[in-house]
Protein 1
Amino acid sequence: MRNHGVRGFAFAVMATAVLACSATAWADGETAPARDPKQAVDEAYTAKIKKYTTAPNFTSPLVEYLPASKNVPTPEVVLGDVSGAPGILPYAEDVYKYMRLLEKATPRVKVFSIGTTEEGREMIAVAVSSEENLKQLEENRARLGKLADPRTIKQDDAEADKLVAQVTPIYYITGTIHSPETGAPTALMELAYRLAVDESPYIKEIRDGVITLITPVVEVDGRDRIVDLYKWHLAHPKEFFPPLIYWGKYVAHDNNRDAMGVTLKLTENVLNTYVDWKAQVLHDLHESVPYLYDNTVGDGPYNAWIDPILADEWQMIGARNVADMTKFGMPGVFTHGDFDTWSPGYLMFIAAMHNGISRLYETFGNGGADTEERTLQPEEYARTWYRQNPPYPKTLWSQRDNNNYEQTGLLTSLHYFNENKRMFLKNFYLKAKRSIGKPGTEGPAAYVLPGDEPRATLQAELLQVLTKQKVEISRATSSFSVALPAKKEKKSDKKDAKNEDKDKKPEPTSKEFPAGSYIIRMDQPYSRIADALLDHQYWSPDDPQKTPYDDTGWTFGDLFNVQVTRVTDAKVLSVAMERVGEIKAKGGVKGDGAVFAINNNAEPALASLRYKLRDTAMEAAEEGFDAAGTKFQRGTILVRNTDRGALEQATSNLGLRAVALATAPNVKTHAVKAARIAYVHTWLFTQTEGWWRMAFDNIGVPYDYMSTQALGKIEDLNAKYDVIVFPPIGFSASTSLIVNGISTAWGNPLPWKNTPETPNLVGKNDSTDDMRPGLGWEGLAKLQKFVQNGGLLITATDTSQFALSIGMAEGVSAARSEKMKIVGAVLGARAVDSASPIAYGYGEKVSVYCDNGPVFSLNSIAGARGRRRLGEEMHTRPTGRGSADDPDFVVGRTSVEAPEEQKSEVWEFPPVLDEQRRNGFRVIPLANRPRVIFRYADSKELAISGLVEGGGEIAQHPAVVDAPVGKGHIVLFSINPVYRGETRGTYAMVLNAIMNFDSLNAGRKDSEK
Ligand SMILES: [Zn+2]
């Protein structure tokens, strides 16, 4: 009943709005957004639009009709109904088929293939514009290219103005990167049709003035899966349908966090399209917020590296978008909200970081094409200063409503953009020019990566990311030095002084770089993205934004564990250098001898080599040594009596350097084996593990991929596997969820498998008859037995918490933080036990990615709760005679000296007290105690990049722990060492554990202090 009242109200509002906008001019000199009375209308299609729109004000004069065409097919030819019709969700293939029909029928549409996905599906971009514009695409691109790179016109503003007057700008729209947000493809099919055929002045102006470029489906693999699921749902209307556990091959929602690392095909393909077309706008379509949140304006803090011109463009374009749609009477349209614009990881940010304009819509989707009653939360329907006409608390909502909002928003944006295109084009040029001017303005002048970097393969990987981002990279042809700004001295903890003394040398005021050093000049058009990735991020704990939308720190040099120097000294730009194209670390074998040594610098490529030469025996040196004029570190790989040719080939391909030695070094060694790996996922979430899977695939580490359900069914895990990797699950999956799964006491099975309705579901991942059951208690027992019998289990963040919560390891516990707020930040860590194989190749300091823990604590007594150190310890004596430092006395007896209190550091085991030793069956013997390999840095050195508030809760606590259990080990990470392709510097911690799975006790010291 209540709902009827709401809809009746809505109807009354809309009637007034339509009258108002058709009777008056839209703005000074602008064409009103309305159908031309002369425009022929497709009556049948229009009637269906009306039928599927659930309230009269959920549409606009721009989309409430469909223009008729004699020769151009409407979306109905492919869909069998109109765009947004209930029950209809096209596969990417159908969307492409339609776009290609358009291309055939009209010279105003051209379809371009822009690459393929991980699973081999095609991605396309559809250009819609006047025939004349499309004929001149190449000439136009050449002119746009000059604006994009002002160096080509000597940064001559007058020349730029001439170009601005001539060129047609490009507005790039991308749809459904998030697969459960299903509406964009049909909206974009119809949008392309409208732009191609409508002769109304409003639409014609867009067509003649702008090239609209459309990628209707960004996540193509995920699109086919969600359409499958929707078909399954239609075939089983009374049953619950399986949630979309896999989107793309590797990640789900995080596919929109890849614009920094560019590890996914979809990011690379969109980035290439955006930059190669020299587009001005990248507008990405999402669905989660009612009814249209143009989060372009969003909220602070804004990314520090964007040009303020862009912030102004966001304001202009966002405000106008809301204004236009408000005048149509469409409720729930707003542009300010709680999305902060700090992280450059979003797909749309490709534009922000390449001198364009990033935009993003959240419209309201039902996750499928059912028309449904939707009830909102109070904060969603509240009228606020930035949302004067909020959505309704409750309404019937259809996919067509969603398509109406998407198309109306896009058409008004396109029109406004066209009206002001000379300004936006000039801004495009100015932003590029100001990027080139960086060395002379805010700086820096360059970033330098030294030519003698010991982690050459990681350095190359970092430079390859920048190359994908279209950043120009040069290489110095001779050595040079640069002046460095004096570094402010950091006061470090007294406690830590003994460890940190050697870092306290006064900072030199200049720095030498050898020939071959890489220079990333900041006087180039895409300096902005290089600067944003390589610089440090500071998020103030006092920032008014209390809920960061995503990661707050990402400094790539730190996370790749390679040296990057920010150089403000402009002299660096006159160093002799040459541009480099493809960047690859130089590998191969040198020297003579039958023993080959490959230094260990914690490069993932060592694991590639291990698995590539699977049958070759390899050993790790347990101590460092000098040979052939080289200092070899602990963990150096030794290969004896092998085929030099095969090693030569493998090391050159991988960029690793092998040195042939006449004799083997006189150090203890152990075998480094190609471990057999079981890689475990849950049916709860697969995204966080997906980043690990991608890393393993890229490095070439093979594994058997299985669910907790499947693992639980393997009788003898030790017979098949050496290592079980259980990567993080995400969303803080609890022990109960991992073991029990989702209850099967009610509901129906949720299958994830290929059926006639779901032919695309499984891909190359995994399948099950019912996603609900978890590991199970028997599975858990098998997992424990695997470790007891000598296997290695690797866990991180929430799976570490899981392993510890069920008591799989003694002497270490995990707790969730209390007040600490570390939101996806880069933290300092310190090596505690460098003799452990897990630490091979690492120095004393390493930067790690942390997202609020968990906080590990050690205890020497089995079953005791973890010790916590929050704040200052108490150092008082009881009330009595004398002063605070003066001993008390007891009248009538001689004084007795109290035994010295034993102390330990946070990352060390607390001393066992004499009283605890009495009948101390719970005291954990030294040999059974976990070994702390890395710990978090002290409070003052904890924050490297991002928001670190209340870091004292985790400072100095263990970050990576190797716990012996029976004959085996559990290696527990508090950090996430493998994340979004960004943390490549910590990959080797995991890979070291894997390769040394049966020698993890190497270097272990069991003597008490
Ligand atoms: Zn989304």
Protein 2
Amino acid sequence: MDQIKIGRFIAACRKDAGFTQAVLAEKLGISDRAVSKWENGKSMPDSGIMLELCELLKINVNELLSGEKIMVESYDKRAEENLLAMRKEVEEKNRQLLKTEIWIGAPATFAGLIICVVAAYVEMPIWIRSALVVFSLVMILAVAFIAVGIEQKAGYYECQKCHDRHVPTYWQTNLAMHMGRTRYMKCPACGQYSWQKKVLTKE
Ligand SMILES: [Zn+2]
């Protein structure tokens, strides 16, 4: 740490803030000799008042210790951290949605199949048999439609040709041939058909 540089920096920030040494000292509850010692590079502010000093000078501790304003670098880093946090949140939300798709889809499909098996093998009047089959087919279909809606909204599909990530329309998603969540669709960016993969984030 360069105490001389830090001292000059403190002096410059103090003047920018419009304080005399005496005023700054008073606000911090210390002697103005102490402030003068920092500014001449003879001593460093006590860690106990560093935060308060930074607040008064409108700088951060990082800047105080480096004796200069840290603009771009720290800003970028902060922005990057925020971006990462946001990205994680979106990813998590989409992951939950895709789980919901399975929670809704799997039991409904299973129940539908059981009803069909019962209708096929258990003795019952023909109209009940038909009603059960129709009911289970409608249920499976309805749930499939809901599930596709969830899948379409959660995250993006990535084109295998140009790697554009996009959200297709509901019907484009629903009518596309698919293997699991990979769907054969036309890419809105390059216009080519490919097996588009489900991805959770835009980038
Ligand atoms: Zn494409």
